[in-house]
Specification:
heterodimer; A: 240 residues; alpha/beta; six-stranded mixed sheet; 8 helices; 10 strands; B: 256 residues; mainly alpha
């Protein structure tokens, strides 16, 4: 089944600093990986490497067993059409309305009629309660609305792979619950492979997410961090 | 000039030319995106670059026509070549000043704005968002800018020529140094298809130069500090290349 992502010994250097060291994991279709860690550890960079926005210094990223560095640009763009990605900042197209932002991933795909696009966009806007702001431009939206639109845009194309970079940061608890409920519904229905960067590691109730912590460039199991008294886990527990 | 500067002045034109070829290749391989989302981008580009610049180009063109006629009427009788009034207006406005002044207006108004806009999109991860949606930023951002700017510049160029000639004629009529009908006849006699072709060619090439260079510097932005620098580089680069292209086009028409 398409949607499997695998990282093999991925390293990434920013200047002379080794940000990521020999990161390896595999997320199969239907599986969920939640990555947490301190700010500046390279979580967003790791997600960007997963979709080929950044290139690792060494190691490989495989989609369905194929090394993405071997894809031509055209193939990579085509494959990305079955990927949903939510950036840490909303990254909505500033001169497009909410409706057009959500419709954009469908417009790229050939063979979808405008009527069908409108129907699908209206449906997902309905799921996220965005009907009233469909004509608004991003500058008029609140942080929570921006994140909600970004998640709707990521899900509209029914992706095989969903990558979420702190999708709930700056979002009020009510909206956060709403966003997660829609994501749960889509996950139940479509069984995507999900990689989520979040400090909220207990979000995926009813699912069995793999939880890992990015610590000093290495990806370790959260249980392992807990046992060894890792700083990030200890701080998170204190805050709770 | 340091070695770094030399590398910069070699790399930048090469990168811009590469971007131009990628854009032209994207134009030649139409996809559904080209006719839906890009359509809106193209309309916006034509509105900002062409329609909204009409008044400014109009004023500059009118004054340019007037100034040329003043200079011609002041100086040409001294050399006994008053029969070439029409030629001087056509040669200076249609062949050289029209395309160049229009390009300068577009560089200052739209080139800088385009570079800053795309640069801001880079900083806000909008370009990265397009990438992960499978949208080619060249097709989505550069192609509409290229088409919109080129079309706008050609149209503005023709508009400039017409308004400048009207300005010259109006001034000639007011001053009555030469009968208006004779002046008009001389202008029409002086205008050839070659002049129109050179003017339109320059419009096309200048439009492409400004669009590609502005997009190139916009896409090269990596952080917020780079946005104003991208606008400056777009203006300086576009001006430099517009002069070079202008010389090349003129040479290709008149050399030999």
């Amino acid at each position: 089944m398409p949607g499997e992502i695998k990282l093999e010994k991925v390293c990434f250097k920013q200047g002379k600093v080794s940000l990521l060291r020999e990161i390896s994991f595999s997320v199969k279709r239907g599986e969920i990986l939640v990555i947490s860690g301190r700010s500046g550890e390279g979580k967003s960079t790791l997600l960007e490497i997963c979709v080929g926005l950044k290139h690792p210094s060494s190691g490989r990223v495989l989609w369905d067993g194929q090394d993405i560095s071997s894809f031509s640009r055209k193939v990579l763009l085509e494959k990305r059409q079955s990927t949903g990605y939510v950036f840490q900042i909303h990254a909505l197209i500033s001169n497009h309305s909410v409706f057009e932002n959500i419709a954009l991933p469908l417009r790229v795909r050939s063979g979808i009629a405008d009527k069908e696009i409108e129907k699908r966009v209206r449906k997902i806007m309905d799921e996220f309660c965005l009907e009233n702001i469909d004509g608004f431009f991003p500058e008029l939206l609140s942080a929570g609305q921006l994140k909600t639109v970004a998640v709707a845009r990521a899900l509209i194309s029914e992706p095989d792979m969903l990558l979420l970079d702190e999708p709930l940061s700056g979002v009020d608890p009510f909206t956060a619950r709403k966003i997660m409920n829609v994501i749960y519904e889509h996950q139940n229905r479509r069984k995507m492979s999900v990689i989520m960067v979040s400090h909220e590691t207990d979000l995926w109730e009813g699912f069995l997410p793999v939880k890992k912590v990015l610590d000093k460039g290495r990806l370790v199991d959260s249980s392992e961090q807990e046992n060894t008294g890792g700083e990030y886990i200890k701080s998170a527990q204190v805050l709770r | 000039m340091t070695g770094e500067n030399v590398v910069f002045w070699i790399n930048e034109p090469v990168a811009s030319i590469k971007l131009l070829f990628r854009s032209l290749a994207a134009c030649c391989t139409p996809s559904k995106t080209a006719f839906t989302s890009i359509r809106a981008q193209l309309s916006r580009q034509i509105l900002y670059t062409g329609v909204e610049a009409l008044w400014l180009v109009g004023i500059i063109a009118f004054l340019c026509g007037v100034v040329i006629v003043i200079q011609a009427m002041t100086n040409m009788p001294r050399f006994g070549v008053t029969e070439y009034f029409g030629n001087i207006l056509i040669v200076s406005v249609v062949r050289e000043l029209g395309p160049f002044f229009t390009a300068l207006v577009i560089i200052g108004r739209s080139g800088a704005a385009l570079a800053a806009h795309i640069g801001t999109m880079q900083v806000n991860k909008e370009v990265a968002a397009l990438e992960v949606m499978g949208v080619d930023p060249v097709r989505f951002l550069v192609v509409p800018a290229l088409a919109g700017m080129t079309l706008s510049l050609v149209c503005l160029n023709v508009y400039f020529d017409i308004v400048a000639i009207i300005g010259g004629l109006a001034f000639a009529k007011l001053t009555v140094v030469m009968p208006f009908r004779i002046f008009l006849e001389k202008v029409i006699q002086a205008l050839t298809w070659k002049d129109i072709l050179i003017s339109v060619s320059k419009g096309v090439f200048f439009g492409m130069v400004v669009a590609v260079i502005s997009c190139h510097y916009g896409l090269a932005v990596r952080n917020i500090r780079g946005v104003p620098q991208a606008a400056i580089n777009a203006v300086v680069g576009s001006m430099a290349f517009t002069v070079v292209v202008s010389i090349l086009v003129t040479l290709s028409f008149y050399a030999g």
